[in-house]
Amino acid sequence: MSSLEARDLRVGYGGPDVVAGLDLVIRPEQITAIVGANGCGKSTLLRALARLITPTGGSVLLDGQEIRTLSSKAVAKRLGLLPQSPTAPENLTVEDLVARGRYPHQGLFRQWSPTDEQAVEEALAATATTDLRARPLDELSGGQRQRAWIAMALAQQTELLLLDEPTTYLDLAHQIDVLDLLDGLVAERGRTVVMVLHDINQACRYADQLVAVRDGRVHAAGAPGEIVDDRFIGDVFGLEARVVEDPVTGTPLCLPIAQRRSTRCAS
Amino acid sequence: MSQRITVRAGGVSLRFHARSAAVTTALFVAMLAGLVASVAVGEFAIPPADVVNTLVGAGDQATNFVVLDLRLPRALTGLLVGAALGVAGAIFQDVTRNPLASPDVVGIASGGSLAAVALIVFTEVEAVPLAALAGSLTAGALLYVLAWRGGVQGFRLVLVGIGVAAFANAGISYVLTRGRIFEVETAYVWLVGSLNGRSWDQVWPLAVGVGVLVPVILALSRRVAVLGLGDDVARSLGVGVERSRLLLLGAAVLLTGLAVSAAGMVSFVAFVAPHIARRLTRSTSMLAAAGCGAVLVLSADLIGRTLSPPTEIPVGILTSIIAAPYFLLLLRRARA
């Protein structure tokens, strides 16, 4: 079981630190959702956890080892990342995309072992993209394309899967589709999912652990039901809101109070 | 259409796209046919059968001379120049993820030509091929350093490259205005790209360069495929992005430099050969790009030699004339 942890993590791009002394333990075989206002450092945090940027201080530990000291292939066998709106070359088919997820397991003379083949088939099946395998990516709908990318990350067969806003640009049905898929991966296959999510209500519904980032630090972390209330929304998003119980799932549901409309309706 | 062929033996397993393998094979057959045709056709026509006989060492003295000393080195130079440019262009386009990138667009070939032309016009030194190689490498290094900003980003590389090309081209124009007319004539043939009078002296450095670099590039081509998914995805799949990019671009610059030093600035091949290869294979294939480049240069030279003998049209003019319409046609068909 792979573990991931940030200790006093600091990341900056030359200016003031965007992630400023952050501690976080990712719980295995659970969904962790990272939420926060724009520019709070949540995407930067995810990139640092995935070893895409070098921290200016502190450390990221993968299975207890400093991630910077591990080889890129060793990391790639344990941790996969799906960036926000990734791009693929023209005419690339779903199957070829997914097959590329096998890269860290392959070598110059070991390009396509039976294990690779099986991993790709499983990833296609898990994301319901088997029927789309021969289609070029650019011909697919947004939801199908996102499923294909997730299949690529699945074929990598890492225990840890990090996703940066996997539901962006998808319509509501496809958003739920993708989130259900990730939920199934955790529940049925014991993967650990960490994702940045925009929608606090979806985060509350799907996350076992919610991590709220504010000014580059963890403002609060825990089960959504325990930490999300009116004040939490005010602190994290700078928004006046009422938090009620979600009638469908029982998780917190955030109802923003817009200044103009709400006063008009209330009167 | 997207069938794959898997070869497994012991711990070794290889995989190809069926279409890509078929197209590449066809291109290599066409390339060999082009080679034989280039040797056969000319003022002193040699039947293709005799060409093959001579190549395997069973020709008479007269054919031996024409084939082995005159026509074969020229044809081989053309083949290797085309292959080198095709691969170099494919690398630039794939690594920068920009279909407009190619060694001629980003100033590598212009850098080589500037050095060559300056040597022709300003000195009596007989080292034009060497100068061309050095000029190309310098332009490549300059491009990389100028485009570097904590890493080299594809789009930035292309923009900086257009600047490098403009600078080198301005230099070339300046040198040409300073030269005497017969020097400028020599320089101009170089700028257009020509295979006229190429001998084994041009073949060997090219053959060694292509022979060493192409296998290295093929070994790196799995990384090229992953780099195509973007830097973040490539990194998270375990590819050392900056190092791979430097290695690949370095190899592409060397190939371009060798090609320019052997035949001058044969335009359009590096840009268009990878595009044609991609359309035909519907995937990325370095070998297909090499085949396309070689077939393009060989056929351009053959046409240039036979269109209005005894005048020869330099190969660089014909590569553009042949490739441009074919390229436009392919694009049109792809849209429909």
TrEMBL record, chain A:
Parts forming coiled coils: none
Checking InterPro entries in the record gives:
AAA+_ATPase, ABC_transporter-like_ATP-bd, ABC_transporter-like_CS, P-loop_NTPase, Siderophore_ABC-ATPase
* SMART domains registered for this protein in UniProt: AAA
By its UniProt entry, which PROSITE patterns does this protein fall under? ABC_TRANSPORTER_1, ABC_TRANSPORTER_2
Answer yes or no on keyword Membrane. Answer: yes
Q: Which SUPFAM superfamilies match?
A: P-loop containing nucleoside triphosphate hydrolases (SSF52540)
Q: Which GO terms describe its biological process?
A: iron ion transport
The GO cellular component terms are: plasma membrane
Its keywords, alphabetically, are:
ATP-binding, Cell membrane, Ion transport, Iron, Iron transport, Membrane, Nucleotide-binding, Transport
Output the CDD domains linked to this UniProt entry.
ABC_Iron-Siderophores_B12_Hemin
Determine the domain of life of the protein's source.
Bacteria
Which GO molecular function entries does the Swiss-Prot or TrEMBL record give? Answer: ATP binding; ATP hydrolysis activity
Where, per UniProt, does this protein localize?
Cell membrane
| Membrane topology, from the record | Peripheral membrane protein
| Xref: Pfam families | ABC_tran (PF00005)
Q: Where is the ABC transporter domain?
A: 4-240
| Official protein name in the record | ABC transporter ATP-binding protein
Q: Which species is listed as the source?
A: Solirubrobacter phytolaccae
From TrEMBL, chain B:
Q: What keywords appear on the UniProt entry? A: Cell membrane, Membrane, Transmembrane, Transmembrane helix, Transport
Which GO BP terms sit in this record? siderophore-iron import into cell
Q: Which GO terms of the cellular component aspect does the record hold?
A: plasma membrane
Q: Where are the transmembrane segments?
A: 21-46, 75-93, 105-122, 128-147, 154-176, 246-273, 313-331
Q: What is this entry's stated membrane topology?
A: Multi-pass membrane protein
- Tell me the Gene3D superfamilies matching this sequence: ABC transporter involved in vitamin B12 uptake, BtuC (1.10.3470.10)
Molecular function as annotated in GO: transmembrane transporter activity
List where in the cell it is found. Cell membrane
Keyword field contains Transport: yes
Listed PANTHER family: FERRIC ENTEROBACTIN TRANSPORT SYSTEM PERMEASE PROTEIN, FERRIC ENTEROBACTIN TRANSPORT SYSTEM PERMEASE PROTEIN FEPG
* Similarity comment text for this entry: Belongs to the binding-protein-dependent transport system permease family. FecCD subfamily.
Q: What is this protein called?
A: Iron chelate uptake ABC transporter family permease subunit
From the broadest rank down, the organism's phylogenetic lineage runs: Bacteria, Bacillati, Actinomycetota, Thermoleophilia, Solirubrobacterales
